[in-house]
Design a protein that fits this description.
Keywords: Membrane, Transmembrane, Transmembrane helix. The chain crosses the membrane at residues 56-77, 83-105. The chain is of the alpha+beta class. It has two domains: 2-35 and 125-156, Alpha-Beta Plaits (2-Layer Sandwich); 50-115. It has helices at residues 11-22, 52-75, 82-115, 135-147; strands at residues 2-8, 30-34, 126-132, 152-156. A four-stranded antiparallel sheet has the order 2-3-1-4, with helices on one face. The N and C termini lie close together (9 Å).
């Protein structure tokens, strides 16, 4: 059985491949084929291709920086001092902003998936992944690809 999935080139593709290899699919049974359309450069990929976790992490880091400054300023008047309060505020800001951003963006993404599976953009490079596996594992491989945001997944019997 051959399972075929199409992905946008991002870290979720890398995660899907590592999960497949980790769960016993040999690397020799996985083929990754970049699809050629028009000339692609790294600059042509839009900034919107990041995953929910990547975007939430960036928002968390920005909030951690801002709250670290606030915590340091407040820390001059508190007992533990500016260094400790800066670290405490940074950690708290990072954690709170990451969780809030991930929750909000995750809900938004799930609601959009109901309307449109995923908008394809000609400016984003696509990668096709072919996985040769036993018939019993084909459904699991398909589910793993969909879990890591494959644009489409198909199966075919070997000839």
């Amino acid at each position: 059985m051959v399972v075929i999935g199409t992905f946008i080139q991002n870290t979720e593709l890398e995660l899907a491949l590592s999960v497949l290899e980790h769960h016993g699919v040999p690397a020799e049974h996985i083929a990754v084929v970049p699809m050629h359309g028009r000339e692609m450069t790294q600059a042509s990929v839009s900034a919107k291709t990041g995953t929910v976790n990547e975007k939430a992490f960036e928002i968390g880091i920005a909030c951690a920086t801002a709250l670290g400054v606030v915590g340091t300023s407040v820390g001059f008047t508190l007992e533990l001092g500016p260094l400790m309060w800066g670290v405490i505020f940074s950690f708290g800001g990072m954690l709170a902003a990451f969780l809030i951003a991930r929750t909000v963006m995750g809900r938004r993404q799930r609601s959009m998936i109901g309307r449109v599976r995923r908008k394809r953009s000609n400016a984003q490079p696509e990668i096709t992944v072919l996985v040769q596996c036993e018939s019993e594992r084909a459904e699991w491989v398909s589910q793993m690809m969909l879990k890591y945001n494959a644009l489409s997944v198909g199966e075919m019997e070997e000839a």
